[in-house]
Design brief:
CATH topology of the domain at 218-515: Collagenase (Catalytic Domain)
Low-confidence stretches: 1-28, 79-100, 191-216, 229-269, 791-800, 829-835
Shape: extended
Mean pLDDT: 73
Number of helices: 13
Number of strands: 29
Radius of gyration: 46 Å
Structural class: alpha+beta
Strand content: 15-25%
Largest sheet: 8 strands, antiparallel, barrel
CATH architecture of the domain at 218-515: 3-Layer(aba) Sandwich
Strand order of the largest sheet: 2-3-4-7-8-9-10-11
CATH class of the domain at 218-515: Alpha Beta
CATH superfamily of the domain at 218-515: Collagenase (Catalytic Domain)
Length: about 850
């Protein structure tokens, strides 16, 4: 492993600039006043009062009992829906059941200007902007939207929408068989007594930001390395850029609100939080229960007179926190395990419960969370998470939690940053007067939510990095109004719309696990059966939450928590129960498929329970083969696709891609971000996404990879380095081979030339020797013989000239010798005669 990393660090040239972030928008305080919208009229050129998606027209109406006349001049907003926009349909379990193209012609969305006709004036005055969605045109139009009058934002809602979204303290509105619209203003938000329709209403003005001192109780979860690591490695020699608000990279605007997110087929873990503000898509449509364990340390118990008092307080706090989860996410909180420590703190930490120590002693709130997480990791329960209650704060910190660890079993050690952390589904809450708010806040982190944006985080680029949640898609500062605000406050009672969208989309995309969420049926809790608490416990057939929760439920008797006469199931808690309170027929789809990696589940016809959600195996090929998509947690996706989903709206062409095939933290690049620039986000790739060494991501870690696999992955990721180096090395090897061949050829040629020279020399010597032998025959006379002169002598020379040289005399027997030279046979003469 070390060698692989060292090799990668030596040869690679990849810049990773850590930019972590998550976000959500905000809800509001109770309303003091609402007004009914009256006499709405659509004004068209043909006076038909009918409009289509590309119509330009005017819309007039009255508010405040007819005292305020309003006219909106509207034109189609072509920027709100991109040509590639798609819709994700989420199932009851929070999964995407279908993906459909968003047809622009089906949506009558308009923008324009607002005008008012003031009393005593004849001219219409332009007083601000307007945004409207026409739901029904014609003589009796129905629409929703917002407009501004003199800096005061006005919100238009139908009566049905208002009832579904109203807070408990909001004014009640009259019921009518005919749908109608109401208007409320930002200046109507407050805790003052209600002003009824017909009064002049409160004075207009913007909601003021709550004063937050430096010593306000804080959540310090952002300080955990695992949650937000600002020191990811930056390899030298490459460009790194900051995503500061107001700055740009190659002209790229620093905002996520410029246009809609282009979500495409094959969703990723990351989500552009601005695109999900207020959306409940992904959250369960039937009630689910998150079972939790709660432990108290020795310091917490000292605040109470008995263990029963401790128990009662904990149940009350969780019950209050549960209400906001029920109304926001359709998820109840139920205590399954409760551990109460003795009030006598041990002198030293024990091995069994090292977190149970007195305040001080060098153990801060971060240490306590790490120790508690390791302890929680020893339990193989089905709890969604564990909460530790204590009185030991560190400075102003009153809460701490690991981000997005819902339904994570066990614990894992992480060496990120400068500390060793133990990550688990756990959080720590310090006792305060706003205890249930802090509990709800820290559980929100466990569910994957991040802090609301404040003025500082809006201006320093945190919102662009998705490390905080904006108020809306067009406004950043949440003004400290909601539960995920970093500081506690006495008037914070609700999650913001952005937090709702943040958590629901995370559950729907499986970037936060939800497998441990139990169906609301036969749930066992430490509180025992309590009819009316919204949880179907042992001995109950149903529980719709008391008289108020059961008013629209014909299946359940609110007083007895038993089925009404003739009912066999409760559709509020069972997916395979129809509106007639009977089991759905066999084959009825209760959990639709979200794609090729998630087969649909169907009802059996004999039970109200939908079968367990089953996904295709991680790594199984899916979708378009040319895009290299594979199944991961039920999604047909890839590393590049997940980057497109998260950061695509930062670019004009959505050309983002994963920086590498290694690691499980989302790290994305784009030509528009700058050369060799990567941004690492605080979100992880989906569980099951391929990572280095051919293995898969699991809770942000790449598990099971081998040395050989990591080397192979590194070579694949660094082709721009490997190929040139390989070519250079290959060229050198080829050159060396050529040199060797040339040297061998030259050496062989040299040997051949030398051999030829030797042969030539030997031949020359032999010729010379032969020549010398011939000279001896011609010049040396035989003993006792004198050759005649004249013509005979000439004839003798001719004869000798035609005689071939015989072998050496030594090779012939009885041959006459003359110094080793063979002599031709001589004729013997008896006498000689001279003339």
């Amino acid at each position: 492993m070390f060698l692989t990393r060292a090799l990668a660090a030596t040869l690679a040239a990849v810049a990773l600039l850590t930019q972590s972030g998550t976000a959500h928008s905000t809800d509001r305080q109770p309303l003091r006043y609402v007004s009914r919208l009256e006499e709405p009229v659509i004004h068209t050129d043909a006076n038909s009062r009918r409009v289509h998606a590309f119509s330009s027209f005017e819309l007039s109406f009255l508010i405040h009992n007819g005292r305020q006349k309003v006219r909106l001049s509207l034109a189609p907003n072509h920027d709100i829906i991109s040509k590639d926009a798609v819709v994700h349909i989420m199932g009851p379990d929070g999964k995407v059941r279908a993906i459909e193209p968003l047809d622009r012609m089906e949506h009558k969305i308009y923008q324009g200007q607002a005008f008012v006709l003031r009393e005593g004036h004849n001219d219409w005055e332009n007083v601000g902007w307007a945004r409207v969605n026409i739901r029904r045109d014609g003589v009796h139009p129905i629409f929703e939207g917002a407009f501004r009058i003199d800096g005061d934002d006005h919100h238009i809602q139908t009566d049905e929408t208002y009832r579904k979204t109203k807070q408990r303290a909001d004014p009640e509105i009259e019921w009518s068989p005919e749908e109608y619209m109401i208007v409320w203003r930002d200046s109507d938000i407050g805790a003052s007594p209600h002003v009824h329709d017909g009064d002049d209403g409160p004075s207009q003005g913007e909601l003021r930001k709550r004063d937050l001192s430096d010593r306000s109780p804080l959540c310090s979860s952002d300080g955990l390395d695992f949650n937000a690591d600002d020191a990811h490695p930056i390899y030298r020699g490459l460009d790194t850029r900051d995503l500061d608000s107001g700055m740009s990279v190659n002209g790229l605007p620093r905002t996520l609100m410029r246009r809609q997110d282009q979500t495409q087929m094959g969703n990723g873990a990351g989500v552009n939080l601005a695109s999900t503000v207020g959306s409940t898509a992904g959250c369960p449509t039937t009630r689910k229960v998150a079972l939790l364990g709660v432990a108290t340390d020795c310091t917490y118990g000292k605040l109470f007179n008995s263990s029963m008092a401790i128990r009662q307080n904990i149940i009350a706090q969780i019950n209050t926190a549960s209400q906001v989860y029920e109304s926001s996410f359709n998820i109840s909180l139920g205590i399954q395990n409760l551990t109460i420590s003795d009030t006598n703190c041990p002198a030293q930490a024990t091995e069994q419960a090292p977190w149970n120590v007195d305040c001080g002693g060098g153990v801060n709130i971060t240490d306590r969370l790490n120790l508690f997480s390791a302890w929680r990791g020893n339990f193989k329960d089905r709890n969604a998470f564990w909460t530790l209650l204590t009185t030991c704060n560190t400075d102003a910190a009153v809460g701490l939690a690991w981000l997005g660890q819902l339904c994570v079993e066990g614990s894992v050690k992480s060496g990120s940053g400068n500390t060793n952390e133990t990550i688990a589904g756990a959080n720590v809450v310090v006792k305060t007067s706003q205890e249930w708010q802090v509990i709800a806040h820290e559980i929100g982190h466990t569910f994957g939510a991040v802090h609301d944006c404040q003025s500082g985080t809006c201006s320093d680029g945190t919102v662009t990095k998705q490390q905080c949640c904006p108020l809306s898609s067009s406004s950043c500062d949440a003004k400290g109004q909601f539960i995920m605000n970093p500081s506690t406050g006495s008037k914070i009672t609700n999650f913001s719309p952005c937090t709702i969208g943040n958590i629901c989309s995370a559950i729907g995309r499986n970037s936060v696990r939800s497998s441990c969420l139990a169906s609301n049926k036969d749930v066992t809790t430490i509180t025992g059966s309590q009819c009316g608490n919204g949880i179907v416990e042992a001995g109950e057939e149903c529980d719709c939450g008391g008289t108020g929760g059961c008013k629209d439920n014909p299946c359940c008797d609110a007083k007895t928590c038993k089925f009404t006469s003739g009912s066999t199931c409760d559709f509020a808690n069972e997916e395979c129960c129809n509106r007639q309170c009977q089991f759905a027929s066999a084959g009825t789809v209760c959990r639709a498929s979200i794609g090729s990696c998630d087969p649909a589940e169907t009802c059996s016809g004999t039970s109200g329970v939908c079968p367990t959600n089953v996904f295709a195996p991680n790594g199984q090929a899916c979708g378009n083969s040319s895009e290299n998509l594979a199944c991961a947690s039920g999604q047909c996706t890839s590393r590049n696709q997940q980057c497109k989903t998260l950061m695509g709206s930062l670019t004009t062409g959505n050309d983002t891609y994963a920086c590498s095939n290694s690691g499980c933290q989302l790290s994305c690049a784009s030509p528009e971000f700058g050369k060799d620039t990567c941004f690492t986000m605080m979100q992880n790739f989906l569980d099951g996404t391929a990572c280095q060494g051919g293995d898969k991501c699991s809770n942000g870690a790449c598990t099971g990879s081998s040395f050989a696999g990591e080397v192979g992955t590194w070579l694949t990721d660094n082709k721009n380095i490997v190929l040139p180096v390989a070519c250079a090395v290959g060229g050198l090897v080829l050159l060396a081979l050529l040199c060797c061949c040339w040297t061998a050829f030259a050496r062989r040629k040299s040997r051949r030339l030398r051999k030829q020279r030797k042969k030539a020399a030997a031949a020359a010597l032999a010729a010379k020797a032969q020549k010398q032998a011939m000279v001896s025959v011609n010049e040396v006379p035989l003993p006792g013989y004198q050759p005649p002169g004249g013509a005979y002598a000439q004839n003798q020379r001719t004869m000798n000239g035609n005689i071939r040289a015989p072998p050496a005399a030594a090779t012939r027997d009885n041959s006459p010798h003359n110094n080793g030279q063979w002599q031709p046979p001589q004729r013997q003469y008896t006498s000689a005669r001279y003339a």
